Amino acid sequence: MLVMLAFGSHANASPVRINFSAAFGSGYVDLTLAPDPDASSNYQPTYSESDAASNISPPLSPYDPAGAQHITGASGMFSSGGGDVAITGIIATSPGVAPPGELLPKSFSWLVADGNPHSYDDLFYANGSPLVCPPVGPTPYTFYGGFLDIFGVMFALDNGDVLGLWSDGLVPANAFGPGTPGEAGVTYGLSLFTAAAGGGYAEGPSQFAGVTASVPEPDSIWLFGAGMLGLFAWRRSAESRRASRSV
Fold first, then answer.
1. Per-residue pLDDT averaged across 146-174, rounded?
2. Cβ(150)–Cβ(168) under 8 Å?
3. What SS3 state is found at 117?
4. pLDDT tens-digit map of 107-136
């Protein structure tokens, strides 16, 4: 029973905390999650050469990748050379237009900065992200894994800026060229988009790979140990009462 209470309580816990660190800043964020009713193994990223040749973007899939949960809220702190800035939420998704020929998830969205689109989908994967991009085409991307996918999540900051965090997936060493930060393993990326005076966003510092991001280990073992200590104390007390009555 103690094992069930210890591990079950954490399994239902919310929010989920992520600690992250890049060359230009670091911080933490607590995510609020909700089930994604559209998550399905029916989602399979595909690529159509004929559509790409005709510059046609297929409609987004009616599904999100299997195992996905929606990130519905966020709070935390981002620290950089400019000081500490609070993370106050997420940028909501809106249907985006996929690159020509590519079938992408239902939650796929764009944030535009300096006229350039940056992808996100605000999805979280407790058991690791699957392949979400077509592994074929002119720029195939075959890596996957991590608690975010390669599109990632956009966080709203209280100064009007936006912080994008994503997973590059499980990659070999020097996957993105010699000198790229990060070693073999699951690596992440981080980008800052600053609020422009006339509206919209400007591109700020960015690190494509080598960002560390982790979900802290659950405290279930500590809870289990505390429960065992409580059980031990209860048994000692019961034995003492029985000994007193038998005297």
1. 96
2. yes
3. strand
4. 999 999 999 999 999 999 999 999 999 988
How many Å apart are CA 52 and CA 74, to the nearest integer?
Answer: 36
Tokens of residue 107, six digits? 């939650």
Provide the pLDDT for residue 8.
42
Give the number of other CB atoms < 10 A from CB of residue 57.
Answer: 17
CA-to-CA separations, 70 to 107, 155, 196, 197, in angstroms, rounded? 9, 14, 28, 31
pLDDT of residue 175: 83
CA quadruple 225, 230, 234, 240: dihedral sign: positive
Structure tokens at 14: 């919310």
- Segment 26-37, tens digit of pLDDT: 999 999 999 999
Q: Are 110 and 118 in contact (CB under 8 A)?
A: yes
pLDDT in tens, 206-233: 999 999 999 986 554 334 444 443 444 4
The CB density around residue 169, as the number of other CB atoms within 10 Å, is: 25
SS3 letters across 120-179: ECCEEECCCCCCCCCCCCCCCCCCCCCCCCCCCEEEEECCCCEEEEEEEEEECCCCCCCC
CA 180 to chain centre: 22
Domain limits, the chain: 13-216
Name the one residue in this structure whose structure tokens are 């960002």: 211
- Write down the H helix ranges in the chain: 2-11, 49-53, 220-246
Confidence bin at 197 (pLDDT 50/70/90):
confident
Tell me the torsion sign for CA atoms 120, 179, 143, 69.
negative
- The encoded tokens of residue 184 equal 């073999």
